[in-house]
Amino acid sequence: MRKRKTEYKQWFVIYVKVRQEFKVAERLENIGIQTFLPYKKEIRQWSDRKKKIKVPLLPSMLLVFVEEKDIPKIFTVPGPVRFLFEQGTRATVSEEEITAMQHYLSGKFEEKSLCVGDTVVVPSLQQEAEVLRIQGKKCLAKLQQFGAVVSFQLS
């Protein structure tokens, strides 16, 4: 008799249609699928007004927490395009990485003497990153493992 593999939830990365991240996240939450969409708030200026808007940190990507058997449910709503694959399998994100991103988004980074080209460990993410630019109290760095660019506040 063959033992059945136990199903458990994992975080997967899905691609969504351009500028549909928030809508797709809401639709998936409405059908019972847990999502995580890291974003930052920016002030954008138009000719007649300024407005504070939410900008996704991972453009066209959304993190979903599902069991393998519930994966087809994701594509029952408009917006999801496909999964992100890594070496032929669906890319997963660990619970620790999700928690680290949540802490990163709520916290501040403290470093006194940074220069462009320095390698730093981004707090909460615990990932090494190369400093690309420093503007006042903002620092822009490229994560070495993922290649993603993150910004954080210096204090």
Jot down its keywords:
155 residues, alpha+beta, Alpha-Beta Plaits, SH3 type barrels, 2 domains, 5-stranded antiparallel β-sheet, 4-stranded antiparallel β-sheet
3D structure, described in words:
- With 155 residues, the protein is of the alpha+beta class.
- The protein folds into two domains: 1-93, NusG, N-terminal domain (Alpha-Beta Plaits, 2-Layer Sandwich); 108-155, SH3 type barrels, CATH 2.30.30.
- Helices cover 17% and strands 41% of the residues.
- The protein contains three helices and 13 strands; from the N terminus they run E-H-E-E-E-E-H-E-E-E-E-H-E-E-E-E.
- It has helices spanning 21-30, 71-74, 95-106; strands spanning 10-16, 34-36, 39-45, 50-56, 61-66, 80-83, 85-86, 89-90, 92-93, 119-122, 127-135, 138-143, 149-153.
- The strands form four sheets. Strands 1, 2, 5, 6 and 9 form a five-stranded antiparallel β-sheet that branches.
- It is globular and about 50 Å long.
- The model has no long low-confidence stretch (mean pLDDT 85).
